[in-house]
Aminotransferase (Puniceibacterium antarcticum), 439 residues
Amino acid sequence: MSHIFPRSMKSTPPTAVGGKGCYLIDSTGKQYLDASGGAAVSCLGHGDATVITAIKAQLDQLAYAHTGFFTSQPAEKLADLLIANAPGTLDRVYLVSGGSEAAEAAIKLARQYHVERGDPNRGRLIARKQSYHGNTIGALSAGGNAWRRAQFAPLLLDMSHIDPCYPYRLQNEGESDADYGLRSANLLEAELLRVGPESVMAFMAEPVVGATAGALAPAPGYFKRIREICDQYGILLILDEVMCGMGRTGTLFACEQDGVAPDILCIAKGLGAGYQPIGAMLCTSEIYDTIGAGSGFFQHGHTYLGHPTAAAAGLAVVSSVLDRGLLENVKKQGDALSAALQDRFGQHPHVGDIRGRGLFVGLELVADRTTKAPFDPALKLAAHIKAAAFEAGLICYPMGGTIDGKTGDHILLAPPFIIEDAQIAELVDKLGFALDASL
Ligand code: PLP
């Protein structure tokens, strides 16, 4: 009998024993095409020799030193590399162990910034309905996923949640993309005016929504208008690129494609590519210097901040993404994947939308293409598709319908940046099989 506390108590997963390139292997020798990188983690695939060598070398030199006493060479180098490639005036990197930690730190940093600049009334966060920022209490409060929040409601912080920018669902008939982007962004201003702008500290959003909406990219101009509103009302813009960052959409930071830079940015997942648990929160010099000139101490912290071995892994991963031409590959193979999905499912009666950027692609499933009516959640369609795909040797990331019961189930695809044409064909074939077996 296992003593592991598993994700699901109703099933026993196979034991993973190996990984090579785009494939994972279980203890029976069965191979699985990892088309979601776990949850958009394994951007370099499995068994990457460069990253493994870098980790081993770091372990030989120094595994760990507490940041209350030391900094370390890999942490310094990783921070330099991230900032050299980061948008806007992002200038400082706070290295943590994962995405929830990065989101939690971002929320607390935003609050402390306003307190230290002498505006302690600013304590409210505005986020979006269809979003996920992590499972710790602050991050879960910011997230807008009803199912994840439901049973913890009494523990959650009071925050605002506006509609996401969701062209497939919320754009009006005949409305241009640009008009919709503007209208959707203006929901932030409306909420600010409703709650009183002087009480708001920040707006938080995923540039391309991952887990809760299946690679949902905004309409053009959306984030530019969001940035304007944030500046006008003196609130910080926090972008959560835990899933969509680190090259997944074809640029190192997803927000580059929207022409905006945040005040605080969260990354994780693809930063360590699964070789080590690592995340990061980046902030501007304005935020850092304000606290530096005040208390001089960010009142937060975890034991594994700036972990040298994790930082060495992150450094090797980001260097590989930049130096091996993988961003180009994400664009090229992302186009190939989207084209293959369009080809196969573009007219499928139950695939309402195929969307995304780069190698971050989502399919939204509907009971009826014309009305866009979702399937009954009781059917647990996403779970059936996941199981059928897994049986066929394909790992994809399905999510049940959310947002007030209006949206459909999604399948999220986030394969390694090294995916080849033959594997794209295999992915589409196996996904087609899983859909047919489940619908
Ligand atoms: N933020 C986003 C956008 C995510 O997708 C996730 C995880 O899926 C998180 C935060 C939380 O990250 P972690 O699971 O590493 O704590």
Notes: The mean pLDDT is 96.
